[in-house]
Structures are given as structure tokens and as C-alpha cells.
Amino acid sequence: MNNSTILMYSLYIKTSESDIANVHKQESNGSASPQQELETFLSPEERNKEKIVKKYEMTKDAEAADFDPFAERKLDNPTSNMDTLTHLLKASLGTGILAMPKAFKSSGLINGIFLTILVAVICTHCAYVLIKCAHVLYKKTRRTTMSYPEVAESAMQNGPQWAKRYAYGFRIFILVSLFMTYFGTCSVYTVIIATNILKVANHYLSAEVDLRVIILILLLPLICMAWIRNLKYLAPVSMIANLFMGVGLGITFYYLVGTGGLEFDKVSYIKPPVEWPEFFSLTIFAMEAIGVVMPLENAMKTPKSMLGFCGVLNKGMSGVTLVYILLGFLGYLRYGDDVKDSINLNLDQENVPAQIVQVAIAIAVYCTFGLQFFVCIEIMWNCIKDKFTKHPVMADYAMRTVMVTVCVLLAAAVPTIAPFMGVIGAFCFSLLGLIAPAFIEVITYWNIGYGRFHYLAWKNILVFIFGFFALIFGTKDAVFSIIQEYQ
Questions:
Q1: pLDDT, tens only, 409-449
Q2: What is the mean pLDDT of residues 221-234?
Q3: 266 or 99, which is more confident?
Q4: In the chain, is it the N or the C terminus that has fewer CB atoms within a 10 Å radius of its CB?
Q5: Which residue numbers delimit the Amino acid transporter transmembrane domain (predicted)?
Q6: How many CA atoms within 13 Å lie on the side-chain side of 146?
Q7: Residues 330-343: tens digit of each pLDDT
């Protein structure tokens, strides 16, 4: 969930709240039409019933209206399907992939394959649902683009009567969840950078350096990265991050299959279910890209191509799932239960290629920090900018400095990678990537219908159960792991 797709997401954070309120209202300008011949024979109760049926059919046929949001969408530089696929791969193949061997350790070698596919199917489906609901709401509201918070609010505004009063609150909930997710992710990135630097530093220094010292030293470089206010200058930095991450992963794969042996007798094939919550937390953190799917869809030349069995979303996530399974399988098979929170930390630091991996990943994550943190900055600045109209630039820099400082202090307080990833994956991504999209679909199709045997409702109940399972047990397991680190 990193790289240049964050740039597109940030463009939609700035959408004003008034845009959401501008829903399409179909009102008759002329006088009431005369009663038809059949209506004169209907009782008042039957007439009211007929009005309800007509209203339901009009809502149900919203997608068949004359308004085509995709034809009306005007973009200066629309992205092709291949460009969108590339951005989706960049967003999904983030630093979380380095924790997949650790996840396989919690599930078992064979069990991890099937559970990774399960998580991938559910996460991809929830992203699919979010885009599908957005396409329905485009026509209901006569809008051509929406961000994730806008989809959430619009669904409530156009849903049942009881939901309308909670529309703005639901929008705020999504914004807060996005902020918590990206802020926590940036704290994890700080720990990853410091850990990789520490590995190399301890090899060349006579005395060992404490990890928290490295984290605090990173404060100034991270503030400098956050002070870049123009996204135009952050995009090339993201490309540098992709280059270094590719180098690091390439050498890591070489160590997994080119050196030493893969010993099947030293791994567990199926771990007990009590250990699965950590697997789900880490895998959801690694695989979720719910924050970028709407910006990607909004920028597409052919948005309908995002969906479908062979659509861009399914193609991209299929490739991502394959890479995640491959690294998790080989990493756990190579190091067994000795695998660490990030697979690159298992590499032999006596070898120069292993040290290159540490440095490359540290640089890649540092270069990604600015784009990740930009989302948090945009959300926070939109909340406070009206209070600093006299000196907005100075206030902006001060806000960025304070936010980075809090982020680094949080990393120093919890300098662990896997448990920290687990908390974000279990708590933030379970809410944002699983539970919220399922709820949005329920509200969006409230008046349209849930299909034969109400299959949409039953399907979303299963998603809710899985989401709450990951939320409760995953968060509990991750928090206990952090407590154990202190003890």
C-alpha cells in the first residue's frame, strides 16, 4: 500500500464537503399530471401502494438512466488499463511483503497457501464491492468521480431514511480510519528503516547501538521529507523507492533459493488455529490497498475495465497474491521457526549482498515515507486550515513537524515490526478494507434489492464475521505481542 498511487489518492482528499451534498433531485416543474383512467378506479390505499412500487422501480433502474458518468467524466491525463494495473501492483507490493514468511510461520507451510488465497479473495472482493457501489452512486447523484469517504457519505445519503442522519458521521469515520492507517503505517516504516540501518551499523561498529537511538536520529531526515509540499517532487522519489525495493527483493529471493537448502522437515505444515490471528493481521496489512482503489478508478480512461472477472483489479491482485505466496512459502521453508519479523533481517550480515539488501530496503522505505505521510498531512490540514488564515505556510510547516515528531515518538515507543503491523492490519484495515465496504454495499442496495434469496445480505454477513474476527482476535494478539516485548 505504497508508492506513487498515494499521489492520486491525495488529490481526492481535498474534495469539498459541499460536493457530496449536491445530489441529483428530479422534480417536476409543471403542474401535476391528470389522473389516468385506471387511477380513478383505485382506492387511496392502492394508489399509495402503487406510488411505493413506482418509487422502488425508479431506484432499481437507476443504472439504466440516461446519465452516463463515464462518458461525462473529463480528465486531462486519463490512465490506461495497463497504467492502472502498474499502479495497483505498486500499491499492493509494499513493505508488508517482507513479513509474509513470518505470517506463514503462524499458519503453517501448506495452510498458509490456502489462507493467503482466502485473504486475497476477501480483500479483492471488498475493493470490488466499493468500486461497484461507486458506479451505482455515480448515476444516483449524477457525479463522475468520488473518493472513498465520498462514496461512504453518498451511500448513506441515498440509502434508507434512518441512515441519512449518519451520512456525515460515516464520512468522518472513514477519514479518521484512513488517517490512523497511514499514520500507523508511517510509524512502522520508521521502525523498518531504523532496523535495517542498525543491522549494518552493528556489523561495522565496535559497540552496539540501541534501536530507539537510530529511530530518534531519523527524526530530522523524516521531517525534511515531510516538508516537501509539492507532490510533483515526491513522485520521482517514489520511482527511486521502487528501484531500491526491487533490488532488495531480488537479492532476497536469491538468498532463499540460491544459497543453503530448503528443509521441509523443519517446518510445520498446519499450525493450530490459536496462532492464525497473527497470520491474518500481517497478511491483511501486506495485501490491503483499499485506500488507492478509488483514486485509481477515478483516473481511468475506461473505468468499467476495473471490474469484471478479467478486469484490472482481479488481474492485479492475482499477481500480487502469487508473489506473496511465493515469498512467504520460500522464506518460511528456508529459515523455519527462526524467521524474523522482516525476512531481510534473516540474511547473513557478514556478506556484502546481504548488507546491500538492508541499505536498499532502508532507502526504499525512506523514499516512500513522504508519499505515505502526505495523506495524513492532507487530512489534518483540511481540518485546521481555516484557523490559520494569516500565516498558512508557517502553520503548515509547523503542523508537518509536529506530526512527524509524534510519528517518530510512537515508533520509538513501540519499536517492533510484526506486532505493529499486526495492530494496523487487524484494527485499521479490518475496519477500512473489510467491514466498511460490506456495510456500504448493504446500504447502497437497500432500496434496489439484495438479489435472489437475499444473497448479497448473506454474503456481507460472512464478510462481517471475518472482519470482526480479524479485528478482535488479531488486535488482541498483536497487542499482547507488544506487551511481551516490553516484559
A1: 999 988 887 777 788 888 888 888 899 999 999 999 998 88
A2: 85
A3: 99
A4: C
A5: 79-476
A6: 30
A7: 999 988 888 988 89
Q: Mean pLDDT, to the nearest integer, of 366-372?
A: 85
pTM above 0.85, yes or no: no
Q: In the prediction, which pLDDT does 1 show?
A: 52
157, burial (CB in 10 Å: exposed 0-12, middle 13-18, buried 19+): buried
